[in-house]
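Late entry, written up from scratch paper. The run itself happened at the end of the previous shift, but nothing got recorded in the book at the time, so transcribing now.
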Amino acid sequence: MGADAPTAGHAWVVTVLYGPTPGDLWSFLCGLQASGFYLVVVDNNLSPRPPWPGLASGCWLHNANTGGLAGGFNRGVEAALREGARWITLFDQDSRLDPAHLLRLREVWHRWPEVPTLVGPLVIDLQTGRRHGRVAEVDADYDRTRLLISSGTTFQARDWAVLGPLHTELFIDYVDHAWCFRAQSRGFQLLQDRRVRLCQRFGEPHPNALCRRIGLRLYSPTRHYYSLRNLRWLLLQAAVPLDLKLKEVVKMLLKPWVWLLVDPHRRANLAAIWRGLTDPLPGPAP
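Output as recorded:
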């Protein structure tokens, strides 16, 4: 990482999940590398894939889905820290941001250099066109929020020791919630930069017209299991606000019935619901 480049010290951490990756991902990563960003690509598939040609040696890690999405991010962050990164941005394989916008996310530390901060882009739900999350305006460029999705979240590497790793026992669902609320309990402000927009898809369109109308998305039975089990864990966490707990509980009173009545794979969903309600809970947050 050249000391004179404006991107020097900025690592882009990408976790590659199961299954085929988007066709434009390789060219996107090569473009980031050409712009001077240091890449850490975490292959989270159970069987390792060969590193993609054109990417710098040493930036491709195989994690075998250990700890799920949380474990992949943690492994990538640790690698970025070893390379001397000063800023780290988390991303999954489906997210895209222009390199210039990635640099813009760092401007928050020029405005509030002494305030511990997590910053992310304004997130647009691709399926509804609406903004994701609840916010309060701070100034012309920034909004304060209580929750950032992992994709696009940027922080200073020096703060990782205080932030702590993402909770690997949660594996995937509510990982963002747990990490963000723990960060706020440790004195961090969470901001969205309105000048930076990330268009993100959440789940797949539901095959049932009524479900689509009320905004429900299609996920796998495995995701249903983690969402139920991890919600039980989340309700016990003192750092999570009561109103968010109540909101998630109300939604979860409806969703299992939808999974059983109109989702595909009903038998698998029934097993997932039973396990999600009865399995032992994850341990305390790290």
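Residues 204-278 form one domain.
(Scratch paper discarded after transcription.)
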